[in-house]
Amino acid sequence: MSSPANSAARVGVVMGSASDWNVMQHATHILEQFHIAFEARVVSAHRMPHDMVEYGAAARGRGLQAIIAGAGGAAHLPGMLAALTPVPVFGVPVPSRYLSGEDSLLSIVQMPKGVPVATFAIGEAGAANAALHVVATLAVHDVELARQLDAYRAQQTDTARAMKVPPP
């Protein structure tokens, strides 16, 4: 479902490095499940700052309705994008080599007043939940998407109710 950069993507999924894909692909899987067009690309805040500025500044004009930004370590990408665009930014802390992603989490969550980033858990669960939050946000004005989200949640409930303890 990934869209070329100039097509009708509704959501941008960006990361600081290709090595972040192992985490960020969990966001794209959710978007695919809900048939939401997205683009996925590397936009490094530190290695390609001019590209990042261009991406953030053009996001709304290109029709993006949300940006899921994942980064590790200093993790400036989500916050910088939030400073560059009125499009809602959903931040995913990617686990880092030395501090297990706690540095990423603190970098993303500790934004100054007036530059919000909705920040999620470190790693795969955070990426999936960021995408689900995007789905819920878009579903506010999309009846079909709201129906799909209700079905998704009902399936989660059914799965949990079917669990046996101890597990087989």
The number of helical segments is 6
First CA to last CA: what distance? 36 Å
Element string (H = helix, E = strand):
EHEHEHEHEHH
Radius of gyration: 16 Å
Structural class: alpha/beta
Which segments are poorly predicted (pLDDT under 50) over 5 or more consecutive residues?
none
Task: Enumerate the strands of the largest sheet in spatial order, edge to edge or round the barrel.
Answer: 2-1-3-4-5
Number of strands: 5
Q: Largest sheet, if any?
A: 5 strands, parallel
Q: Give me the oligomer status.
A: single chain
Helix content: 40-55%
Shape: globular
Question: Average pLDDT across residues?
Answer: 95
Percent of sequence in beta strands? 5-15%
Q: What does the model show?
A:
- This protein has helices at 21-33, 49-58, 77-84, 102-109, 124-139, 143-161; strands spanning 11-15, 38-42, 66-72, 89-94, 118-119.
- It is built from six helices and five strands, in the order βαβαβαβαβαα.
- The N and C termini lie far apart (36 Å).
- The radius of gyration is 16 Å and the shape is globular.
- The longest helix has 19 residues, at 143-161.
Main attributes?
168 residues, alpha/beta, 5-stranded parallel beta sheet, 6 helices
